[in-house]
Structure formats: C-alpha cells, structure tokens
Design a protein that fits this description.
The structure is a homodimer. The longest helix of chain A is centred in the N-terminal third of the chain and has 23 residues, at 20-42. Chain A is an alpha+beta fold. Helix content of chain A is 36%, strand content 28%.
Chain lengths: 600, 600
C-alpha cells in the first residue's frame, strides 16, 4: 500500500499515517479489535485481556469459561468479515479515570478495570466498535470497512497468563495476522507454510539428527550420530579455518569457583541465569560464558607485546537458565556450545583485528550458503555516559575501528543508538535464510571491563605493563542454534559437504550385495560418508526413503553395473545421472564437497 | 636377596621368611623401627604414632613439639647407621593389656595407649630396640646389624593427622624406603629421580601445556594452546580409528534431571561424588558418567536386531567430587573427558565385540608407544552371588567371552577374584611406562543392570522385544590423565605426530627473516605445526630453548640455505642432520608423523 493510512485519533480527529511500519501496526491493532468484537459477539460471556499488534501480526487474550477450539477460528474469521460488511465505525471517547472505572466495572471487565486503576493520568480514552468497548489509546482505522476482508487471518490458539505471570489468571490467546495488502498476507502465509515444512524439530526427528529427552530435562540437546557427523564437519571446517588465520584453540572446564564470577561481574549482573552448586561448603558455578576461562589462560604467564595478538578459540559449552516456556527445539536451549573466541591485542592492532574478523565472518557465512545478511552497529547512548564502562576515548577508538572496517569492506549497516552493551560497542550480523527470515548469528564485541576487572597486562616495548584490548567474537553463535538454522535454511537437504550421509549404495538383489559392499568400502576409504541399504525391500521403496532422508546420492548396483565395475547414480535433486565408474563418482563427490556447493 | 630373611617373632622364637614380598615388608617395618629409635635418640621429647611398611617403603608418624627440617633427614640416617653398628637386638615381649597400658603410660606414649585400649585381645606384644619400646605385633629382623647400611634412605617430611582424620592431632610424618639389597635401592632412587624430572606438573608448566587456576578452583584443568594441540591430535586419531571400526559419535549434555540418575541408580549409589543443583525447584545433576546419556539416544527410537551392534562414542566431559587433598595435577582431577563408548549388541554378538575391543586396545596403546602392559580380569566372588546384578547365566556367558577373547589374542592376564563391580565382570589394562611404572588406562566392562533399569529393548527376528547386552569401554580412560601419563612417559619429548610444535624455524640474522617466514608458510600449508623464532637473541640461546621445549626439529636459515633454497636441520635427539631441501624435510616429517614413531 503506497498511499497513507487514514486513522482516527482518540480525540476524534482524523489524520494520515504514511510511515509503512507505523501504518501496519495501527492496521493490525484495529484488526485485533475487530477480532475481539467478533469473539464477543460469538461468545457473549467473554471478558477482555489485552490485544496488541506484535512483530508478525497481533493477538488478543480472552477470559472465557468456554474453551475455544480450532474449529472456532474460521467462525471468528467469518464473523469479522460480517462486521467489515457492516462498516462499523471505531468510535473514540475521552473520559476521566473515574468514568472509565465506572464504565468498565459496569461492563464486568475486571481486567480492564485493573489496568485503568494502574494508570497515572486522569485523562483516558476508549474506543467503541459495535457492542465492544475497549480501553485503548488508539489511533485506529476509521471504520471496519477500511479493513480488507482478504488482508487478515486468524491463525492459532494458545494458553497465556494475565500479565504474563504464571501465578495470575489463565487466559486464552488467539493469534492472528494482517497486512496492508492481501498479496502481502498471501506471501506471509506461503512463508509460514514453507517454514512449517522446514521446522527443524520435525526434520530433526525425521532425519535422526537430535532429540530432547523428557527424562533428562528441557532445553538439553542430545546429538544423534547423524547430527554429530554434521557437527564434526562444521567444527573441523572452523578449526582448519581458524588455525590458518592465527587462532589457537584452548579447552577450559565447565565449572569454577564463584570467586571467578565475582571478579568478572557475572555473579552480580547475571546471577539469575547461572546454575550454582556447593562444593566443600563453597559455591561453584556452571559456566554461562567462556571469557573468564580464556582470561585464566592469558594470565597463566607473563605476556609481552611480542605475544600479541593472542586469539584463543574454543567450542565452549555453556549453560544458561531460560524459562521452560521459551525453550524451542535447538533454537532456544539451556545448554549450548559457542564457537567462541577472545582476542587480546594492543590498541594499535585493533583495526587489523576487526578488519580480519569481518572478512572471516563473510567467508564463513558464504561457506555455509548464506549470501545475504544485515549488519547492526550497536553504539552507546551518548546522553547516558554514566551507564557505560570504558573511557570516552576508548569508545570512540572502538567505534571508529568498527566503522572504518565495515566501510573498507563495503558493508551496509544500521546504526543502533543506545543498543551497545555496557562494556563496549558491537557489530551483530544477521543472515537471511532461503525463505527470507533473518537469524542473528555472528557478533563482534569490544570489552572495556574484563581487562580491568582481571587486571590483564602485557609488557610493552617500553618495559612497562599495559592493558590489552579484549574482543569477544562468535561466528556461528552456537552450534545448536546454527544447526537448527541450517536445517531450516536447507529444509534438511544439507549440501554434500555437510550431509550426514552423502551416498547410499543399493544392491538390486541378493546377488549384488557383495559388489555393493565393495563399493561401500571404497567410498569409506575415500572419506565419503556412505551407507548400504541391503534390506529386503523394493527398489522404489528404498529410493523413496533415501529421497525423504535427503541423501544426496543413491548408488544402484545391479548386473550391468557389476560387470562394468560401475554404479548407476541418482541425485536427490536431478534424478538419474547415468552410470559412472567408482573413481569418477568419488572424484565428483569430492569436488562438490571441497567447493561446498549446495547442489546437486 | 635370594636367601631367606631370618626373623624373630613376638614370642621370641626365630624363623625364616622366604616369600620375597613378605620378607621385604618385614625388612621395611624393621627399618621403620630403626628410624623411630634414631629419631627418639635425636629428639628425646618425641612421642610415637604408627610406623608401617607401605607399597614403596615405610613411614613413621611422630608427635614432637620441634618441627623437623629437611636438614634433619641426613642426621637421622646417620644415627640409624650408628645404631646398626651397635647391632642392637629387636627384643620382643608378650604382655597383658593391663601391663601394656601401664608400660606405655609410664613412657608417656599417649597415642600408643589409645591404640592398646582399642584392642580386643588380652595378649599383646611389644618390641624393644635400644631405648625405644614400640607396641607391635612383629615379626622383625633379629638385630639392627641385619639391616644393610646402604639399603635404606630417609626421604621426606609431610604433615599428617592421627588416624588420618583432620579433626585429630597433627603429627609429623617421615617417609623412608628400604630394599633387601643396596642395588635395588639404587635402582629405585634412580627411578625416583627420573620420575621427578618427568613430573607432568613441572613439564606441563615448562612446556606451556596446561594450568590449574586457584581462582577457578582445584582439580580443574585449563588446556593451553599447546596442550590443546596435542589433545586434538589424540582426539582426531581416535575419531578416525573409531569411525573406521564402526563406531558412531554422539554428543550429550553435561546436565540432566535427577530422575535420570535415579533410574540409572547413580543417585542412590554414587550421590556423594555428584554435583547437584536446583532448577525451577527441581534437582539437576552435573553428569559423573556418560552412560545414561547414550542410553537416551538408544531409546530415542525403536531399535531392531538389524541396527545392532550400535557403538556410541563420545569424548564426554564428566565431573566427580574428589577431596581436594587427593587431587594431583592432571592425574587426579575433578573434571575430565572420558574417551567413552557404549556398545549395545545381541548376546550372539558379544564375543565378536570383545575380540574387536581387545584388538583396538592393543592397537591404540601401541600407537602411543606403549608396548608393555598388564591385564586384569575382575570376576565376582561366587560365594557372594547376592551382591551382584545379572543372572548366573549372564555372568558365565560374559566371563566366557572375556576369557575366550584374551586367549585368542594370546594375552596373559591375572584373575582378580571378587574384584568385579556389582554390575558385571571387566577387563582392565595397565600400560607400563618408560621407567617401568604401571598406569591403569583401558577398561572393558559388562553391564547387566542399566539395560534392565532403563528397559532397553530391540525387536528380534522373531518380532519380539529382547534386552540388548551393554558394554562400557574406555581406551585412554580420560584425556587429562592420559596426557599426564604421556608427558611422564616421554619426559615431555612427544613423538613427532603428537608434538605441539614440530619444528621451529630460526633465521640466523635479520636478513634471513623473509626467507624463514616463507619456509614457515610452506610448513603450515603442509599441516606441519611450526613456529618462527626471529627474536633478537643469539643462535645458541635459541637452540638451547628449543631443545628445552623438546621441539623435534630446529630449522636454521642463513645465507647458504637461502641461496640453495634449503634449511639446516637439527634434531632434538640426533643433533645436526645437515642441510635439506624444504620438500625433502616435509616428506620426512610427514613420514615420521604417519608412522607415529617416537624418534627422532
């Protein structure tokens, strides 16, 4: 919708909103009211919670004795369209706090009354839509006729709690979405459908990659053999890349005295996310971060300027408390392995390190098939300098280096004012996946606080101790989350270099088993991850199964192949690729793996 | 000493002891009394604790106001030799409990009185040696003249507590050793000296392999870059070997609900060694074992007999509580990474699996340079069948398979009656290191209890569920401990394939730096772990440092080498090896690495 959205404000005046994001939010908010009006008319005993617009649509929380069912969703949609036909106006009204309390008490809307009573001001507003009166600041579209009947969808049901607190009354939440144009809704629904097919939890089960065990606990990932194969390929690739770029790997324990976390400040600022336990009447912590461990190694001996930069990398598994309600497959967990590194360098080395890091980020993302990305530069809020660690001069040095390096790399970025963490500015990189969704993966962060807290030093050319600069950085973020993203990006059809099974050898009948076994051995000797499917099943069935398992190559061995020492090659995307000698197949697959190509 | 030892028993009779182990124990015990007599004569106010023979010598605990110093040790030795010259008899005496209490009370020996009062019997014995009267059951050598003046050594001082309990009186312990022949003492002292030079804690610091941080806590290993390089070589080698032998790697979390550990039985039987903490008012456990995790993966889907054997491997880091007093470098720690695996198979597959395991154990040990080993077969105590899980038939099947496989492999073993763990019989393999010390590394264990506790099953060819057999096995035991053993075995001079730095390139002067840098790049491209030493130091100094760091090759680059495109090669063992072309050096070092040879 290129034209502006006409809206009515709480004071009754009208206006136009031309900012698309703002217009969309208002449109969704109005559609949410429309949904509430439909629900109220279908279920008259329903009382109202809140109904805001959210990042991908809107929801409304209802207090209703009757449990809504999936079948109600389309009835609600139908009623919404009826109300659109009637072109009901969104009628605002300004009223005093007392009047508002009286009004909503009279309507039996106890939750609304609670909200009103918490408000400080004396002037409040509400909107009436048909029989529905809602306590609301607006603005809204002028009438229901302005909502296109094909621009919204009532999507799903969920349980929720009043004010999001489990101790409060349980409510029923209905999710919906709306877009300014029906075509946009269609695109969104298609993406949603596509996302459902790619759901890494579903594919993770089907492809036997990982599981979560109720007996062991929520948010804890068990990597199965096939998942671990992919993980090892990722780790090995990163290791080779990092070593060739001057990183050194270290290995640090998962637990440490709380003294360490008091020095680092985590005990003070991050305590609620940490798992703690007692050992010999002393408190220990299951590590939520790797930084203090890497710092111990830095401090294990005297460092000279000649030793710097030191780049310590680790696949470090950390544990952080998350509420069980927010856990989600591999994407949001309680234990995960960061591809973590900390760079200790002099101030003179900062720019070079940042430039090399951005280069590395792009190389790694490209290698995994992510070509599009968004970059955010988070800087401090200069009006609140007291909130931040580090000196004025350190912040401007750091920001300067980040900006200079991005510029040199020809990157575009969005400047996020006031979004920096207290210990330093940072760059975050989000990749865009195959269906257009952004995923936050890489991060590069300055840290002005840990070098001070741990009194880090190196001896400069002047023979005096100096404080090193410390950078935190992760490329993939966490292996668990990255695996989830990869599965969804590729819809489970991993590129050949990552595929847990790269080829399956299928003998046509009993008498081709030995030959098929010999082919398997050859492949194994050449480092190809291959399996044999010699079950007593029909060929068609085996091929369909391999196709479902997204195995790149099916190698069929029958009489003809046995005689000629070849195999009939089938690819998951291209189908039949004809007969090939074992050598040429091996050459070919190695080539695909080395180039890390996504196809065939 | 081939001849028997003449001894005097408590009743005054004499006899001969011909069993060498028994004779040695008596000889050490007598030397301990001799030491006590020497201490009493030098420090007359000293009161006695106990003074037994132990596995590598003897000690005596003393209660003395004066703190003994290192300088006192040789004074004590001298006084012992004086007493030998006087050929004092060990005079036994049988006395009643009352007489004994009276005697030692009169001597002011309160600790001896406490010991006597705890004894049940009425007949007790003591031995007198010069002025020293000791409550002792004997036997002893007949007189001090039978102790060879060059057969013992007073070694060291330590603090101790009466009856080993920290709440009791603090005592001073003096350690010594003695052998039946002076030559044996000399051999032992040489080994002790050699062990001191090889101490992995000292070498670990000098070679920058690892550290333990007071701030982080005891028993927790920080692997430095150089240590991690060695660890990665070990892990990669194991991974390749295991994958080629049909293992599949998995990755499991470090924490789980206590419910999991209740099912496994660890919560009941192993609770005091486990670290536990609360999450959402529920108890979680930091894993002390990997087995329940691997079992979760086994149980994540229905298994068929066609899927077996399943061999799940993991470098699994576990945490177990140990008293801080027993912690020792990398050898005894609180957190360690097992090279763990669990095999799930049918009963028919058991023998094949055990045979393959023994083959694997010997291959791995040989690859790391251990050619000698001792094997122990731990079986149950058949008189106490109620102590053990599993049926009669399972135990005999398991023991039969272990014995059959060892026999087929031509192995010698020691049968340890009653030493089996309650859940099944096991084989333990101890390797003998370069100076003759045994180290327990590999273990292969049957487990009859976990498959039952977790209701594991597979569908047999009959379509019915059956219970699989489960084997636990570790080859290296733990990576931390194995690293400590490797360092001590090789005295820090790792074989080329394991060396953290395989070569150091040393330019003779400033103008050879570029050439040396180019050599370094070539080595890096060929996967060789090399460093450049271009500091402004003398050549001799750099070579000495590289030698101390036990770096296999020093590559010296000067005018001659630069002109001819060669390098002058020096080896840590063989010294100057002449000039070589870069290619031929690379070929050579790759050959050494591939063959995993210990030299040059």
């Amino acid at each position: 919708m290129a034209t502006a959205l006409k809206v009515r404000f709480a004071d009754g005046t009208t206006g136009e909103v031309s900012d698309p994001a703002q217009a969309l939010e208002i449109y969704r908010h109005s559609t949410s009211h429309l949904m509430a009006a439909a629900v109220s008319s279908l279920f008259p005993q329903t009382r109202l919670g809140i109904g805001p617009a959210v990042s991908d649509g809107f929801y409304y929380d209802f207090d209703c004795e009757t449990a809504f069912g999936e079948g109600d969703l389309s009835r609600i949609e139908d009623r919404m369209r009826e109300l659109i036909t009637r072109d009901l106006p969104f009628k605002p009204r300004i009223l005093s706090k007392e009047e508002a309390v009286g009004l909503f008490s009279g309507l039996g809307e106890a939750l609304k009354v609670e909200l009103i009573e918490e408000r400080a001001g004396q002037q409040l507003s509400c909107y009436q839509l048909g029989d529905l009166v809602d306590f609301c600041i607006g603005p809204h579209v002028c009438s229901t006729g302005m909502i296109h009947p094909d621009s919204f969808r009532v999507l799903s049901l969920a349980g929720s709690y009043w004010k999001g607190d489990e101790r409060n009354r349980k409510l029923q939440r209905i999710y919906g979405t709306a877009f300014l144009a029906p075509a946009e809704l269609q695109a969104y629904l298609t993406q949603l459908e596509e996302a459902k097919k790619r759901d890494h939890r579903k594919l993770g089960r089907e492809l036997d990659l990982f599981s979560i065990s109720e007996e062991a606990g929520p948010g804890l990932i068990f990597w199965h053999p096939r998942g671990t194969r992919v993980r090892f390929v990722i780790e090995d690739f990163l290791r080779r890349t990092l070593v060739s770029r001057g990183y050194e790997f270290v290995t640090t324990p998962h637990v440490a005295r709380n003294a360490l976390w008091r020095t680092s400040g985590h005990y003070e600022y991050y305590r609620e996310n940490m798992y703690v336990f007692d050992v010999d009447d002393e408190e220990f912590v299951l590590k939520p971060m790797n930084c203090p461990g890497h710092i111990q190694i830095y401090k294990s001996r005297m460092r000279s300027y000649r030793d710097l930069p030191l780049r310590f990398a680790e696949f470090g598994t950390v544990y952080r408390y998350e509420k069980s309600g927010v856990l989600h497959g591999m994407l949001r967990v309680r234990g995960f392995t960061q591809d973590d590194a900390h760079i200790f360098c002099t101030r003179e080395q900062v720019y070079g390190e940042i430039a090399a890091l951005l280069d590395l980020v792009l190389y790694i993302m490209g290698s995994f098939g992510f070509e599009q990305y968004q970059v955010e530069l988070s800087v401090r809020d200069e009006t609140k300098n007291e909130k931040y660690a580090g000196t004025e001069e350190e912040w401007s040095m750091a920001e300067g280096a980040l900006v200079q390096a991005m510029t040199a790399k020809g990157m575009q970025w969005k400047r996020m004012e006031g979004e920096a963490v207290f210990y330093g500015p940072k760059i975050d990189v989000k990749v865009i996946d195959a269906i257009g969704r952004p995923w936050q993966l890489s991060t590069v962060q300055f840290d002005f606080t840990l070098p001070r807290r741990f009194s880090l030093a190196y001896i400069g050319p002047d023979g005096q101790p100096h404080q090193p600069v410390m950078l935190h950085r992760a490329l993939l973020g966490s292996l668990e989350r990255f695996m989830g993203v990869l599965v969804e990006h590729y819809a489970g059809a991993f590129p050949i270099w990552l595929a847990p099974v790269q080829a399956v050898v299928i003998p046509i009948s009993e008498r081709h088993r030995t030959y098929a076994g010999a082919v398997l051995t050859r492949l194994g000797e050449n480092g190809i991850r291959a399996e044999l499917d010699d079950r007593n099943e029909k060929m068609g069935y085996k091929i369909r199964e391999a196709q479902t398992a997204k195995i790149p190559f099916m190698l069929i061995a029958g009489d003809k192949e046995m005689e000629s020492g070849k195999i009939a090659v089938r690819n998951r995307f291209e189908g039949d690729m004809g007969a090939q000698s074992i050598e040429s197949f091996i050459e070919g697959i190695k080539g695909y793996a080395e180039s890390r190509s996504a196809r065939p």
